[in-house]
Amino acid sequence: MRSKRIELFVGAFIVVGIMAFVYLAVQVSGLAFSDKKDTYQIVARFDDIGGLSNRAKVTIAGVNIGSVESITLDKDLYMGLVTMNIDSDVDNIPTDSSIAILTSGLLGEKYLGLSIGADDEMLTDGGEIFDTQSALVLETLISQFLFKAGDSE
Amino acid sequence: MKMVAELGAALLNWLESVGRAGIFLIQSVFRLPVRPKESLNLLVKQLYSVGVLSLVIVVVSGAFIGMVLALQGYSILAKFGSEEAVGQLLALALLRELGPVVTALLFAGRAGSSLTAEIGLMKATEQLSSFEMMGVDPLRRVIAPRFIAGVICLPLLSLIFSATGIIGGLIVSVNWLGVHDGAFWSLMQQSVYFDTDILNGFIKAVFFSVAVTWIAVYQGYECVPTSEGIGKATTRTVVLGSLAILALDFVLTAAMFGDF
Amino acid sequence: MTDAYIEVQNVSFSRGERLIYENVSLTIPRGKITAVMGPSGTGKTTLLRLIAAQLAPDSGAVLVDGQNIHSLSRSNLYKARKKMGMLFQSGALFSDMSVAENIAFPMEEHTKLDAEAISNRVLEKLYSVGLRGAAELMPSELSGGMARRVALARAIALDPELVMYDEPFTGQDPISKGVLVKLIRQLNDSAKITSVLVSHDVEESLSIADHVCILAGGRVIAEGSAEEIKASDNAEVQQFLNGEPDGPVPFHYPESSSVADKVSL
Ligand SMILES: Nc1ncnc2c1ncn2[C@@H]1O[C@H](COP(=O)(O)OP(=O)(O)OP(=O)(O)O)[C@@H](O)[C@H]1O
Ligand SMILES: [Mg+2]
C-alpha cells in the first residue's frame, strides 16, 4: 500500500520534470516543433559585418524570414561572407534586392533587413545578393560627424 | 628532498583513492541486476527519497531566486529604459547558470548528505556486511539504486528549478512591476536558444548529478563506521560536493560558452 | 580425527600494528556444534569473518568444505556464502525492512519459492525463535534480545550448511536462552548443520557443544570435546572456565610500557 503511494509520487515527480522541460523549450526558448521548415541558402558579402552573429534573424519588412547560418571571411576579397537560411515559402526575392545590417534599438542586436528589388528573376538556393550595406559602426559615424563639423567651420 | 618524497607519496595516495572511487562506481553500476523487478522497486524507493523529497526546497528556492533576479534586474534595466529585457536576463541566468548550479548545491546539502549518512549507518550497523554474508553484493543492492536515482533526479530538479524561477520572475516583473508581458516573452524567446541554453544547462546538471551522487555514496561506503566518522563523511560530502560543482561549472562554462 | 568442515591452517592476521592471530590452526568438525570461547577482544568475531572471507589472512589458509575460501573468485565466493548463515554480534537487521521482510530477504534473493511458500517459511522460522507475533514490527521497535533472535531466524532462513552464531545468548532472559540452546541443538541434529558458536556463556556453551576451542592471546590454548576441556589441567583453561580474575590469562588488554605517559585526558 505504502509503496503504491511512493510510485504515484515518483510518477508525478517525473511528469512535472518533463513538463518543466517542455515549458522551457516551448515557452522560454520559443522552440516550435512544427518549425522544422525547409530552407534554402543564399549568401551576401559585406565590407563590415560589425557585430552580426550566427543565428541573427533575416527580415523583410520587419518580418522574420530566416536566420544567419555562418559568417566567414572571403579571403580573396577581404569581405565578410554571410550565409543565411531563408524559409522555402519565401521564394520570391528578386535577384537585385539589397540587404543591410541593421540594429534593433540603440544598443540591441544586429539583424539583416532585405529590401526588395524589381527584377523578374528570383533568388534560388546558392544565390547571392550583391547590393549590400554594411553595419553602421558607431565610431565611424562619430568620426564622420566630427570631420564634417570641422569642415564647415 | 624529503618534501619531494612526501609530495610524491601524497600524490600517489590521492591517485589511489581516485582509482578506488572509480572502480567502486564501475562495480556498483555496471553489473546487471539479478532480479530486475526488485531492482526497479529499489530504484523507485530511492527516486522518492532523493527526488520527491527534494522537490519542496527546489521549488521554493527557485521561485525566490527568480523573484529576486527580476527585482534586481528591473531596477538596473529600468535606468536604460529597457525593462522588457528582464525576461531575457532571467531566462539566461537561470538556464545557463543558476538552475543547474544552485539546484546541485541544494541537492548536495539535502540529498547528498542524507545518502552518505544512511549508507554510513548501514555500514556501522553491519548491514552491508550482512548483505555480503548472504551472498548479495551490497554495491549492487545498496549503492547502485541510490547512484542511479541521484543521476536521474538532479537534472529533473534543475529543470523544475529554472521553470519555477522564470514563473516567479514573471509574476514579479509583469504582475507587480508592470513590464509589458508581450515584450517580456518575445525578448526572452529571441535570445534564448534551445541548444545553447536549455540543452547546455541540462548537460551541466547531468555532470553535476554524477559528481555529487558519486561523492555522496562513496563517502558513505568508505566512512569510518562510528558516529564521528559518519558525521565527518557527511560534512565531506557537502564540502567536496559543492567544490566539485563549482569547479566543474567553470570548466563546463568555458567549454560551452567560452567562444562567445 | 573426524571429518573437518572447516580447517584453519597456520593463519596469521594483524590489524595495523597489532597482531591478532599468530600461526593459528584449528578444525571445526562437520555436523557438530563447535564452541569458540575466549576473553573479549581476542578475535573471536575476527575468526568468523576470516571463515566467511570478509577479512583475508596475512598468511595461512582457511579451507571451508575443502575449498580455500580466500582463493575463490568473487562470484564463487558469493555462491559459497549462500551455504553459510551468520548471526552478527550486533544483529545487523536491515533497518528499512520489517521483521518478516528481513527473514524473507535471503529466500527471495536465492530461491525460486513463491510468495506464499516464503511467508509460510518466515512464520515457521519466527515461531521457532518465539517471535511470530512480531512479524510486522520494524527492527527499531525491537529490544536488543528480540533483534538478536530475529537475526538468528534470518541466519537459518536458507537452511545453510554452516551457521555461525556470534554471541546468540547475550541479552536473553533465562527462558529464551534455554529455548535458543535447544533450537541450536535441534537445528544441528535434524538438518546436519555445522555450527560455530561464539559465546562467553561457559555453561551454556559447554552443555551443547560437541567440540570446544578456547582462544587467548592470539593462540588456541585448548581444543577438544567438552569433557576433555572440563577435565583439562591447563591453568589458563581452568581460570577461564571458572572466571578467576587472577591467573595466567590477563584480564587487561596488553599495554606497551609507555602507555601511562601517552594517555593524558
Ligand atoms: N575494524 C577494526 N580495526 C582495528 N582493530 C580492530 C577492528 N575490529 C576489531 N579490532 C581489534 O581486533 C581485536 C579482535 O576483535 P574481535 O571483534 O574479533 O574480538 P572478539 O573476540 O569478538 O571480542 P568480543 O568478545 O568482545 O566480541 C580487538 O582487540 C580489536 O581491538
Ligand atoms: Mg566479538
Automatic annotation (TrEMBL), chain A:
The keyword Transmembrane applies. It comes from the Bacteria. Keywords: Membrane, Transmembrane, Transmembrane helix. The chain crosses the membrane at residues 7-26. Residues 39-115 form the Mce/MlaD domain. InterPro entries: ABC_MlaD (IPR030970), Mce/MlaD (IPR003399), MlaD_Phospholipid_Transporter (IPR052336). One of its GO terms (molecular function) is phospholipid binding. This is Phospholipid/cholesterol/gamma-HCH transport system substrate-binding protein.
From TrEMBL, chain B:
It is found in: Cell inner membrane. PANTHER family: ABC TRANSPORTER PERMEASE PROTEIN-RELATED (PTHR30188), PROTEIN TRIGALACTOSYLDIACYLGLYCEROL 1, CHLOROPLASTIC (PTHR30188:SF4). Part of the ABC transporter complex MlaFEDB, which is involved in a phospholipid transport pathway that maintains lipid asymmetry in the outer membrane by retrograde trafficking of phospholipids from the outer membrane to the inner membrane. Probably responsible for the translocation of the substrate across the membrane. Keywords: Cell inner membrane, Cell membrane, Membrane, Transmembrane, Transmembrane helix, Transport. GO terms for molecular function: phospholipid transporter activity. Belongs to the MlaE permease family. It is a multi-pass membrane protein. The gene is mlaE. This is Intermembrane phospholipid transport system permease protein MlaE. The keyword Cell membrane applies. The complex is composed of two ATP-binding proteins (MlaF), two transmembrane proteins (MlaE), two cytoplasmic solute-binding proteins (MlaB) and six periplasmic solute-binding proteins (MlaD). The chain crosses the membrane at residues 47-71, 147-178, 198-217, 238-257. InterPro entries: ABC_MlaE_roteobac, MlaE_Permease, Permease_MalE. It holds the Pfam family MlaE. It comes from Marinomonas foliarum. It comes from the Bacteria.
TrEMBL record, chain C:
Transmembrane segments: none annotated. It comes from the Bacteria. Residues 6-242 form the ABC transporter domain. CDD domains: ABC_Org_Solvent_Resistant. GO terms for molecular function: ATP binding; ATP hydrolysis activity. Residues 240-265 are annotated as: Disordered. It comes from Marinomonas foliarum. The keyword Transport applies. PROSITE patterns: ABC_TRANSPORTER_1 (PS00211), ABC_TRANSPORTER_2 (PS50893). This is Phospholipid/cholesterol/gamma-HCH transport system ATP-binding protein. The keyword Nucleotidyltransferase does not apply. Keywords: ATP-binding, Nucleotide-binding, Transport.
